[in-house]
Amino acid sequence: MDRTFHPQNVLQYCPRCGCRQFEPYGVKASKCGTCGFVFYYNAATAVAAIIRDSQNRVLLTKRAFDPGKGTLDLPGGFVDPLESAETALCREIKEELELEIVSKDYKGSFPNTYVYGGVMYFTCDLVYECTVASYEHIAANDDVVAAQFYKITEQVIEQVGAESIRKILRRFCLSK
Questions:
Q1: Which domain holds residue 11?
Q2: Does residue 147 fall inside a structural domain?
Q3: 13 and 57: one domain?
Q4: What is the pLDDT of residues 16-62, one digit of tens each?
Q5: Per residue in 84-140, pLDDT tens?
Q6: Quick one: which of 15, 5, 11, 43 has its CA closest to 24?
Q7: Which region holds residue 2: left if phi is over 0, alpha if psi is between -120 and 50, else beta?
Q8: How far apart are CA 21 and CA 114, in angstroms?
Q9: pTM for this model (two decimals)
Q10: Beta-sheet strand order (sheet of 38-40)
């Protein structure tokens, strides 16, 4: 892992007291030498949906913003504070695509990192296989500029921005 943008190398001041004695404290935290505050670099939870059409193609979106602006992605997003992963999944799919999830099957979790604003963020992407009520009103909204069904091949996977999503597609969707 490239540590250039790791929070321990980027965040230099204590978020509590503003002191510059904010130093690495193990591999997952930084500690203030003045007030003793410890800040842990925990992973944020995100959800991703595998949605297939009747031809077994997978619905991919095109990202509207960085990180990965213009690259392909599975629909989904971050879990809000005090929100369940399942609620976030339904909310994100509704916000991004105007689709209503009628069933979901948890498939697994995939760690991820990405750089945004010069800081590396850690996520844990939870993937679900989903069915939706109808594709009749599908529309790209929110942080999605396009949505299309794809037969998943290595060439398609190469257009995906996040390494965790590439792993998910290879594991669950790659056409054989």
A1: 7-40
A2: yes
A3: no
A4: 999 999 999 998 999 999 999 999 999 999 999 999 999 999 999 99
A5: 999 999 999 999 999 999 999 999 999 999 888 888 899 999 999 999 999 999 999
A6: 11
A7: beta
A8: 26
A9: 0.90
A10: 22-24, 29-32, 38-40
